[in-house]
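User: Can you recover a sequence for this backbone? Please restate the input before giving your answer.

Assistant: Of course. Working from this structure:
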């Protein structure tokens, strides 16, 4: 059986003819020529294989087939508009998943507040964690973007360099190794700490409270270890005490801060992720890229 489909455009023209009571006024309302309206009605009649209008009557009157089609046309147009409205609503509520290094978690409140004000229709699912883990999730497409500390990914933007400082207040006897809290072998900050200690000949030992950055900070606050954090960390956490000058030598060199992007991320999400990252870093001790 031959498949016959009625274009929504033809139904809209039919309703315009009925609502405007004629071809001429329908053409004006649709911003087309009258011959165009006539051709579309002829095409519609060829599809339904029946006349739509009693052409010998004035004013214009619908045939029984025409009245039946008009009733269905109104429902089709309503359904068409409903589908488009729902799809438009979905597009207007964009969403994306973004990771944030635990080292920048203090800025999440600022980021969420700013996004809510600037992009009220944007839904952002935030995930915090260690940069190396977040970078893996970006590469695998589980995250569309991530704010990372010192961890390089294939697609990234450099947002600045985080200035660091030593923290801790542990009494160390002469000849004793300095206790250092680290977050793991894959942590860029831990690698930078170890390299800096080696460069300046500081004898050190790892402490066991190194499961994550929060545990590291707790160990330092408790007076059990030293570590390096951003140079303003004690502003948000008064319990953190900067190390006495000379205890561990010069502070580690600044670490680059990256906005990592998945290979398939859309341009609109890139803009949103960039805005979120900059809001999160507001107030952080960053040197220019």
């Amino acid at each position: 059986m031959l498949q016959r489909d009625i274009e929504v455009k033809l139904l809209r023209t039919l309703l315009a003819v009925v609502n405007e009571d004629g071809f001429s006024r329908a053409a004006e309302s649709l911003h087309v020529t009258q011959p165009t309206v006539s051709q579309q009605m002829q095409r519609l009649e060829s599809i339904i294989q029946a006349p739509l209008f009693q052409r010998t009557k004035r004013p214009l009157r619908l045939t029984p087939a025409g009245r039946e089609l008009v009733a269905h046309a109104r429902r089709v147009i309503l359904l068409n508009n409903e589908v488009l409205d729902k799809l438009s609503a979905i597009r207007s509520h964009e969403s994306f998943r973004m990771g944030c290094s635990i080292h920048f978690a203090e800025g999440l409140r600022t980021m969420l507040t700013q996004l809510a004000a600037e992009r009220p229709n944007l839904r952002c699912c935030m995930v915090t964690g260690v940069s190396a883990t977040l970078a893996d999730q970006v590469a695998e497409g589980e995250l569309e973007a991530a704010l990372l500390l010192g961890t390089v990914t294939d697609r990234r933007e450099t947002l600045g360099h985080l200035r660091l400082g030593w923290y801790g207040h542990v009494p160390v006897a002469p000849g004793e190794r300095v206790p250092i809290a680290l977050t793991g072998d894959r942590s860029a900050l831990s690698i930078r700490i170890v390299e800096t200690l080696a460069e300046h000949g500081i004898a050190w030992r790892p402490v066991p409270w190194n499961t994550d950055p929060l545990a590291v900070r707790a160990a330092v606050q408790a007076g059990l270890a030293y570590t390096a954090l951003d140079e303003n960390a004690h502003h948000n956490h008064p319990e953190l005490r900067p190390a006495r000058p000379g205890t561990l030598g010069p502070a580690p060199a600044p670490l680059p801060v990256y906005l990592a992007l998945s290979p398939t991320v859309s341009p609109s999400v890139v803009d949103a992720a960039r805005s979120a990252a900059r809001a999160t870093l507001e107030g952080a001790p960053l040197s220019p890229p």
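That completes the design. The radius of gyration is 33 Å.
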